Amino acid sequence: MSLNRLRRLAGLTESFTPDPELNAEIEREVNAQATGTRHDWMDILETIYDAGEHGISREEIADRMNGLNANKWRLADGGYLEEMMNEIVHRFANMVEADHDLERFRWIGGSQAEPDIEDEVDPATRTAMGNQVTMSSHALAAMREMTASQNGFTAQELAQRLSQTIHLPPVVARQYAMHMIEQFRSMLGQEGERYVFREEPPQKTDVQFFRDLEAQARRSPPPDLEL
Hints:
53% of the residues lie in helices and 7% in strands. The protein has 227 residues and is mainly α. The protein folds into two domains: 19-107; 123-219. The relative contact order is 0.13. Mean pLDDT is 75; it is low at 113-118, 202-207 and 220-227.
């Protein structure tokens, strides 16, 4: 798993390539899209980017997006995702190309080579890091979604969502919800018991983020939070 991918999944950056100039171009293009759709465009662009030089089919994109949010991404009913795939080549013509019937998409925006962490940490630590990033990704997605759909969330509401989406026992879900709120407090606004997710990632260098994540993975988590 690449360091960039870990950062993206953890919600600490919107970038998904190792090229700062390309990242800036992607972010400029994404920020030009309608408010409320920018994370969706970024998710689809990242899916196409990750597919590599052989590209990815329309159905494969739908499957990946359903893995992120099954209730939101629906290809078969002619919904939102299909509309975005019909538009993506026009909106991001310098980054994505498609065949003539828009059934297969390929990234053309720049290098896809990324530094990999396979040889930098031991397998047990790498597995622990992956588990933490996966859980963080689900929790951050829930915080974003509840902020957008219901103007925020309480710790209990976040715990209920985690219990439903990643099947954590209620007691563990409550503990992990509080852990995430504390871990990402700099990205949250608070009024009383309600929190709002703010789209302002903390400023950390890649090296510092990697060190923090590796150190956290090496520490023994509470037994009831292990996956």
